Every structure is written in structure tokens, then in C-alpha cells.
């Protein structure tokens, strides 16, 4: 059994951490003496070669989409900054688009972090800075006045501080059971516009189920369901629209029934016995490759379409897990299996995780994790938000991040004591967010120059889709 410190001892540890990293030091941007394009190319190594231009194409849309795909740059920079010495599994990519709504296994709609590809042991401040930087970059991209952007960033940080102080008073079990439901968000909303936005998101989530996806993504032929190709976003690995090389076409449906059955069996072993029994009610219909997100483009991502005897579907996403950018720049022990890293981190940080979350190893030394493709999942349409709604959204992100950190670390008391009740930390993070936005724009311009001069190739979804219409 672990030795349990008193609350006073834990508070003293948090205050002592200020001597290791002054709260004002959180304004520092870090080591930006690097070639952003070289780091991005390093991060693209090992991805599907034909999809790397699509990754760059999606990143090139705006400074905000560039930031979403360049987590490696911020991790590199922050490695040179001081931290409070309180490390635990953090999200690693806690920008404002990696929060959203989804259903718990009990069918309750919750708001939480929803992307854990970069999860690893690291300083909690890095997550706060990732969120703050994304708010400043999104605000500037949307043309919001600097003072208003400053208020939005400060709102997220204040909420993080206040919720962490609240969680410092929770018992271990109460904290483990804490959840940010949409009902609680409605109660906490400060404007009628905010409440309408939450209700609209709740309504949208209710329609995003396995059943609703079946007729949108698949068609039935001769009693078999087939996923419909829509390249470059979705295609069959060995089909005529495939973007994979010959050595990567092991991921087709027939291969899955054969040698990939071992990978699926490995996944099943990571599930609780009752979930394995549930999957036994489904049979595999089809497998397709799906390109997702911005930063994940080019990594292996498969969709398995399964149905039960009532012709009701289950869509499982099989996503490649690669080395975390946090682990590359912060030295800490973690699981050797990257899929296990993602799953363990997600289960620790989220209030409730997908019922089918698990991991496995596949061919070509690739490691994967499984989850449902869509189960009442909904994300924010940030660019259409008014300033007031964006500020409310920032507050909810700060709340969800504090809850995740408090649960994952068990150190809400220490973090709250470090933060204190004043403005020093919020002021420093706000200053950091604008420095981050400035650096991101500089990196984006260097990236765009590399695209224009042919150093790297960037192609849009529309350009690549046109290749298949010719």
C-alpha cells in the first residue's frame, strides 16, 4: 500500500513547486530554434506515402489547421521550459477541437477530451498551453479582437484553476466518478445563446449512431454489406481506388478473415469478458481504409463494418498508434506497446471510455487501438461560434481538462496549491498563448513556402478526389 500524505503535506508540495517553476515562467515560449518543416517531415516518416501530401494539404488551409497537425513543434519547444515537476499521463494534444461530446456505455452524453493519440506521461502545463495556444490561434483566425481573445484564453485558464481547487476537496472515489454531462453544461451555461448551442449539439449527437451511419457509408449487395469508396477519404485497401502500396494491402477484408484474424483475437484479449461476449454477436462484413483528422492523416486507420443477426451494425475503427510526440520530448517511462499507451491513457483521463476500447499488434510491426467509429460523437463548429459562445466553450474545455488531470494524476491538491487563487498563472498562460500564436504563424509561413517551392507536396481532398474521376 502507498504511503498517504496529509492534505497539508500535499499543499506544501504544490507551493514548493513554485520554486522549481515560477508561475510567471509559464509565459516562456521555449526553444523555437528549429526547422519546422524538418520536424514535420520527421513526424511523417513511416506514414502511407501517398497520403502525406493530403496531410500537408489539410494543414495548409489555415494557421489553425496547421496548429492542429503540428503537435510535434509545440512539444519540441516546451521541452526547454520549466515545469512544476508534477508529471502524469496527459492528453498531449489538448487543443480545442480535441474536446467533444460522446456517449458513455450507459448512453449518457458527456463532454470530455476525445483524442489520445499523443497521450504520454508529461507535465500537466503542456496540456493547458496546448489548449490556450489553440484558443488564441483560432481567435486570431476568426478575426476576433486581441482583447476579446485574451478574455477567452483567461476564461479557460480561470476555469481550470477554479475547478482544480474544487477537485482538491473531492475524495478519491468522488473524483473518479466525476463526469461533465450535457445536463450539467446546460445548468452552467451563462447565456441563452450558449444553452441553445448545447441543445443543438445534443440533438445532433443523438442522430450520430452506428445505425444512422449504415446507409450513409455502406450498401448491400447479394446479402452482404459493403462500405462505399469515396477516395481519398475512404477506400478499400486492395481496390481500384486504393492509395496504398502493394506491401500495405494486407489490410483488405479477405486478409482480415485470414492472417489478420490473429490481430483481432489479440484485441479481444484486451477487452473485459462481457465485451468479448457482446462482439460474438456480430459478423464481419467489410473492411475499408479511412483517412481521419489532420494530424493523423497518413497513419493506418481501418473501419470494420460488422452486423448482428438483426442486420444492426457496429462500426469499429482500428487506428494505428505511433510514438507520442510528448514521449519524444519528455523522458518518462510508459507502455512499450503504443496501442496500450493510448488505451491506458484514455481510460485514465476520460470520465467514461468507449465500451470497445482495446489494442493489438498487426503486420509490418504496426500497433493499433480499437474504438467505435461513431457513437453519438459530436465536435464543436468553432468557426461559426459567436465570441460569447466561444468564450463559453473555452470555459467548458477548461473544466473538462481540470477534471481529466485531477482524475489521472490524483494530485488535484498539489496542482491547486501551485496555482493559488490569484492571476499570476492565468496572466502567464495568456501571454504564452499569444507568443504561441505568433510562432505558429511564423512556422505556418515557412511551411507554406516549402509547399510553394516544391520542398514538400501539399494536395487538397478535392485535388486527390479528382484523380479518381479522370
From TrEMBL:
Residues 15-36 are annotated as: Disordered. InterPro entries: DUF2252. Pfam families: DUF2252. This is DUF2252 domain-containing protein.
Amino acid at each position: 500500500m502507498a504511503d498517504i500524505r496529509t492534505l497539508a503535506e500535499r499543499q506544501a508540495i504544490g507551493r514548493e513547486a513554485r520554486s522549481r517553476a515560477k508561475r510567471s515562467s509559464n509565459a516562456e515560449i521555449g526553444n523555437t530554434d528549429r526547422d519546422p518543416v524538418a520536424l514535420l517531415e520527421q513526424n511523417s516518416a513511416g506514414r502511407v506515402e501517398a497520403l502525406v501530401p493530403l496531410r500537408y494539404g489539410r494543414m495548409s488551409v489555415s494557421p489553425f489547421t496547421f496548429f492542429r497537425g503540428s503537435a510535434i513543434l509545440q512539444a519540441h519547444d516546451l521541452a526547454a521550459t520549466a515545469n512544476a515537476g508534477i508529471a502524469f499521463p496527459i492528453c498531449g494534444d489538448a487543443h480545442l477541437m480535441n474536446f467533444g461530446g460522446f456517449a458513455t456505455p450507459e448512453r449518457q452524453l458527456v463532454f470530455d477530451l476525445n483524442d489520445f493519440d499523443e497521450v504520454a506521461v508529461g507535465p500537466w502545463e503542456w496540456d493547458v498551453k496546448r489548449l490556450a495556444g489553440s484558443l488564441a490561434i483560432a481567435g486570431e483566425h476568426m478575426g476576433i479582437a486581441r482583447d476579446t481573445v485574451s478574455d477567452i484564453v483567461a476564461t479557460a485558464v480561470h476555469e481550470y484553476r477554479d475547478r482544480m481547487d474544487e477537485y482538491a476537496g473531492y475524495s478519491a472515489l468522488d473524483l473518479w466518478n466525476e463526469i461533465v454531462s450535457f445536463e450539467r453544461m446546460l445548468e452552467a451555461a451563462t447565456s441563452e445563446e450558449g444553452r441553445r448551442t448545447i441543445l443543438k449539439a445534443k440533438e445532433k449527437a443523438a442522430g450520430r449512431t452506428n445505425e444512422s451511419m449504415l446507409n450513409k457509408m455502406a450498401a448491400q449487395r447479394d446479402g452482404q454489406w459493403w462500405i462505399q469508396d469515396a477516395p481519398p477519404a475512404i477506400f478499400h485497401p486492395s481496390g481500384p481506388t486504393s492509395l496504398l502500396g502493394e506491401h500495405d494491402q494486407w489490410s483488405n477484408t479477405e486478409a482480415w478473415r485470414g492472417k489478420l484474424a490473429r490481430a483481432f483475437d489479440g484485441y479481444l484479449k484486451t477487452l473485459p469478458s462481457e465485451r468479448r461476449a457482446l462482439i460474438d454477436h456480430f459478423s464481419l462484413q467489410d473492411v475499408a481504409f479511412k483517412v481521419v483528422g489532420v494530424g493523423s492523416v497518413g497513419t493506418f486507420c481501418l473501419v470494420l463494418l460488422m452486423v448482428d443477426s438483426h442486420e444492426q451494425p457496429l462500426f469499429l475503427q482500428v487506428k494505428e498508434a505511433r510514438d507520442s510526440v510528448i514521449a519524444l520530448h519528455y523522458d518518462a517511462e510508459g507502455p512499450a506497446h503504443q496501442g496500450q499507451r493510448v488505451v491506458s491513457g484514455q481510460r485514465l483521463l476520460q470520465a467514461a471510455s468507449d465500451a470497445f476500447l482495446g489494442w493489438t499488434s498487426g503486420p509490418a510491426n504496426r500497433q493499433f487501438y480499437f474504438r467505435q467509429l461513431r457513437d453519438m460523437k459530436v465536435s464543436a463548429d468553432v468557426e461559426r461560434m459567436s465570441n460569447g459562445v466561444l468564450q463559453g466553450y473555452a470555459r467548458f474545455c477548461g473544466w473538462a481538462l481540470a477534471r481529466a488531470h485531477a482524475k489521472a494524476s490524483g494530485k488535484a491538491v498539489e496542482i491547486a496549491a501551485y496555482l493559488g487563487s490569484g492571476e499570476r498563472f492565468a496572466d502567464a498562460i495568456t501571454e504564452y498563448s499569444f507568443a504561441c500564436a505568433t510562432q505558429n504563424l511564423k512556422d505556418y509561413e515557412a511551411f507554406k513556402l516549402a509547399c510553394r517551392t516544391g520542398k514538400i507536396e501539399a494536395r487538397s481532398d478535392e485535388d486527390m478526389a479528382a484523380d479518381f474521376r479522370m
